[in-house]
Amino acid sequence: MRIKLGLAVVLCIFVSASVARGQQKGQYMPGQQGLNAGVLPDPGFSYANMTFNYSADTLKNGNGNTVPLTGSYDIWANAFIFYYVPKFKFLGAKPALMVAPTVANGSLTLGSINFPNIALQGGGGGIGDTWVQPVTLGWNLKRADVSAGYAFMAPTGRYTPGAPDNIGSGYWGNDLITGSTVYLTKNKGTTANLFTDWEIHGSKTTGQGTKATPGQTFTTEWGLGQTVPLKKDFTRLLQVGLIGYDQWQVSDNGGLASPNVPASALPYYSVHAIGFQTNLVMPAKGLLFFFKFEDEYRAFGRPEGRMIVFGGSYTFRIPKPTPPKQ
Fold it and tell me: What is the pLDDT of residues 185-195, one digit of tens each?
């Protein structure tokens, strides 16, 4: 099963010798995809629980150089994912609907090496922003599963301009998404996977009382996987694979970051990561358990850290599959 959602990143700070400027990253947190990126659940209701931990102790400036600060940036988030796939098809594809409310807890602690008595601290916990995916179409081809859809991020998380404990982004977002899983072998055991997300953001009120619009963001997540049967009757499968993600800001920020600083003056951000994924799949029972780890090896204008994602899902199939004849 492919599971996707968006999470608002609480805070990203860019520091120069004389001024600290705040910037909101894109709402979609990379690291959610990987193997089975183009596969939709079977018809019926599916529930998934996904836990994220992003941690970083390195901050990169717009040139990719490490900012001389000590500290950490951490966020724990839990997503409650509700998926519905009807039995009928539209344009030869399975339609799907998904809603994912989240809860999150984040913390930021930064202390300057040059000025050890100066530190920045912040963080908060509570209900985060909500990802709603009202339109998704998935096609099952002979050697591939592909999907395309539209989603939006609703700013349901707490956001007060300038507050140190925000957990939401403070603005609406729109996402155009695609997913593809190509089966490289006839038995469909070896796969190549790609997920893409183009984010278009609304405006938000900054702590300085100005209006700013975060630049658009493009994200790709990829994976190369192999499925190995743990039981001869294929009722229990192990998937292992190499995964990674890449995310770029692709347009200028709009509005004002402060009364005297245009948001377009803030540096573009990007990040690149690689890691691994393991899945335990029980097809007959509609169960899936997963674990992912990805380490960021290059970043510009944002923290550079690591992502851990784990959880599971269950599909209430409609109609229930017919038991095999004895």
Answer: 998 999 999 99
